[in-house]
Design a protein that fits this description.
The complex is a heterodimer of chains A (368) and B (293). Chain A has 368 residues and is mainly alpha-helical. Chain A is built from 18 helices and 2 strands. In chain A, helix 4 packs across helix 14, helix 5 packs antiparallel against helix 6 and helix 5 crosses helix 13. Chain B has one domain. The chains are: A mainly alpha (368), B mainly alpha (293).
């Protein structure tokens, strides 16, 4: 919304950028370039770099799932990590039983989706916040449950499964092969989700998030779309669980602990709620920040995450993904402020920039 | 039979702890319309304050009272400087704020006092007394009694005092309250302070049993939220009753239902919720809200 209103206002610098973005060469070339870069990346990185990148991919997918239900549909879910854990366990169990990998993948998607559907059918009956209050139970019940069902889960010891060694003759190292898998599957999930939230269902989700009464008056059942969003989020969580096993090759009850679930939510909000690119940033945050703080002082991780989350909510409610836009707005506003003293700067900016400067403010008051 | 009575009494005592937390959540919700996921975290902080004070040589009772006062101030400060900014906006954002607060508070406690379990001295002796021929633990009886007294005091405050009337007015309609000259902001601070103080009672009383860690009340928070859902957000009495039901049921299920056992008893309230949701979506005692579009 803010972006639509912003586009007519900029005076000089953006037009070339816009026209550049609209030329067919750039529109088709840029994604191709990105794909090419991602295809080469695993070959040039060191092993630890590849591993970090793959873990970022795994958790970016998990954050993306959370974003579908929370960022796009506005239902706070504290249980996303449970579906990651479930997907990981299904994968580990299937591999240990020697099932076909494709079948394992399908099961790792389907079982979490079914579990999510069942939870959502009950939880979505309650008003908004109650979903958060019910889903908080998923990781808290999930950990002892995983310990209890030890014939499937290996109890506290956990399960390990090695099934992603690079195939013979491919000339790839294991970490390169794993990164390719993550990039491939994760990329497809991102693409599909991007289509989903931009299309018919995405608009329905947005209405449900914005105002449930309006939604139902338009024939969109909030209940049904909440359940749908939650189920899709669980399915994506299952995919991320599969990818987790691809990269980490080991899972234990600790994988789906309450703390991790909170961290996932923190990562999503800091990356940017309701944004595809924000999910990627969330994945980066989830993986990189603990790595950094552990290097300094492991007991600081939780403190830093909480402080960062509150800071972001105060200063940048849209998350890191909105940082460029917020900076651009600030830059544009500051010359306009001084411009009233020194008369004619750019002629077009006077009426337009005033609305552009006020618009985000009112919007922020409404939302934050 | 004796075992059964013991289980029920112990269940009532843990149920009281959940009830206090749940009541604090309801208090905050009625004042500011949001669910405070940091309620347990703040209570843990209070328990740590009391623990530090007892290590300084203060008697346990005094340390707990001091921690309750500190919590009151802390709750009021949190409302004024953190929550106030998000109160009128999107409730989902406000919930995320409280989750951030929970992470922050847990992090602060872990950073200062570490993540190892600490022994917290009990306010009550660890003996048992004979009650109607059955021996029950004094600690369970004492915990229940203290929390019931705290809740009764709170009720008296709300119903019988002028400040209680003002608090209720602000909860019902902040705008009208402001028009009739009530200091809404300060009353909201008092509401949050009272909730934090009630949480502190729960935290310090349960700390000897759970041993003190930064995540000590994560499970209790889940139980409290379950009680809030079961009782209905609009019904303090319902919430307390639901918390007691949960406390007793989970104790009984842990012992008498083989599959559940002690490790899975946290699932009991949620099985209960699923059943209740299918039958009475507004909660056991809650009223159905009708929204005019």
């Amino acid at each position: 919304m803010a972006r639509v209103l912003d586009t007519p206002t900029p005076s000089t610098p953006p037009p070339p950028a816009r026209s550049l973005r609209q030329t067919p060469w750039v529109r088709w070339g840029a994604p191709l370039l990105l794909v090419a870069a991602l295809a080469v990346l695993p070959l040039v990185g060191t092993e630890s770099f590849n591993d970090t990148l793959a873990r970022i991919g795994v958790f970016a997918v998990a954050v993306l799932g959370l974003n579908v239900v929370m960022g796009y549909t506005g239902q706070v879910s504290l249980g996303q990590i449970f579906f990651l854990g479930l997907g990981a366990y299904v994968t580990a169990y299937g591999v240990q039983q020697g099932w076909n990998v494709v079948l394992v993948f399908v099961l790792a998607c389907l079982l979490p989706a079914v579990a999510g559907l069942l939870v959502a059918l009950a939880a979505a009956r309650l008003g908004g916040l109650a979903i958060a209050m019910v889903t908080i139970a998923l990781p808290i019940v999930g950990v002892p449950l995983a310990k209890r069902l030890s014939e499937f889960t290996g109890g506290s010891q956990g399960l390990s499964a090695r099934f992603t060694d690079a195939p013979e003759g491919s000339g790839l190292y294991d970490d390169q092969f794993q990164l390719y898998l993550v990039l491939g599957i994760g990329g497809v999930v991102f693409l599909l989700t991007a289509c989903l939230v931009r299309g018919k269902y995405g608009r329905a989700f947005a209405i449900v998030k914005d105002n449930e009464n309006v939604a139902s008056s338009m024939g969109i059942s909030p209940y049904r779309y909440k359940v749908l969003a939650f189920t899709i989020a669980s399915l994506i969580g299952g995919v991320s669980g599969f990818l987790y096993m691809v990269v980490v090759q080991y899972t234990s009850p600790e994988t789906m602990s309450f703390g991790h679930s909170i961290e996932l939510l923190v990562a999503m909000v800091i990356g940017g709620a309701g944004s595809i690119a924000g999910s990627l940033l969330g994945g980066v945050f989830y993986v990189v920040v603990p790595d950094l703080t552990n290097a300094v002082d492991p007991s600081l991780t939780s403190l830093l995450q909480g402080a960062l989350l509150l800071l972001v909510l105060f200063l940048l409610p849209g998350g890191l993904v909105s940082l460029p836009r917020a900076l651009a707005r600030r830059l544009r506003r500051s010359p306009a402020g001084r411009g009233s003293a020194a008369p004619p700067t750019p002629p077009s900016s006077t009426p337009g920039s005033a609305t552009a400067a006020e618009r985000p403010q009112t919007e922020r008051q409404g939302h934050a | 039979m004796e075992k059964f009575v013991q289980l029920v009494v112990d269940g009532l005592s843990t149920g009281s702890v959940y009830a206090a937390l749940a009541l604090a959540i309801v208090l905050v919700h009625s004042a500011t319309g949001l669910i405070n996921f940091a309620q347990g975290g703040l209570a843990v902080l209070a328990a740590y304050v009391a623990w530090v004070l007892t290590n300084q040589g203060l008697p346990v009772g005094l340390a707990i009272v001091a921690a309750i006062l500190v919590s009151f101030v802390l709750g009021a400060v949190v409302e004024r400087y953190l929550i106030r900014r998000f109160e009128r906006g999107d409730p989902d954002t406000a919930v995320v704020v409280t989750i951030g607060l929970l992470t922050l508070v847990t992090g602060v406690a872990g950073w200062i006092w570490g993540y190892n379990n600490q022994q917290f001295p009990s306010l009550f002796p660890l003996d048992t007394v004979s009650l109607l021929g059955v021996s029950v633990s004094i600690r369970s009886l004492g915990t229940t009694a203290v929390i019931v007294v705290a809740m009764v005091l709170l009720q008296v405050l709300f119903v019988r005092t002028k400040i209680g009337l003002a608090l209720r007015a602000v909860a019902i309609n902040p705008q009208s309250a402001a028009f009739s000259g009530l200091p809404v902001g300060r009353l909201l601070m008092v509401g949050w302070g009272l909730a934090a103080a009630l949480g502190a009672v729960a935290g310090t009383l349960v700390a000897p049993q759970l041993t003190l860690t930064p995540g000590m009340l994560d499970n209790a928070l889940v139980y409290a939220l379950a009680a809030v859902i079961l009782g209905g957000l609009t019904s303090p009495v319902g919430v307390v009753v639901a918390a007691w039901i949960i406390g007793v049921l989970e104790n009984l299920a842990a012992v008498y239902v083989g599959f559940i056992g002690f490790d899975l008893k946290v699932a009991v309230p949620f099985i209960l919720i699923f059943v209740v949701l299918l039958v009475r979506p507004q909660g056991l005692f809650g009223r159905k809200t009708v929204v005019r579009v």
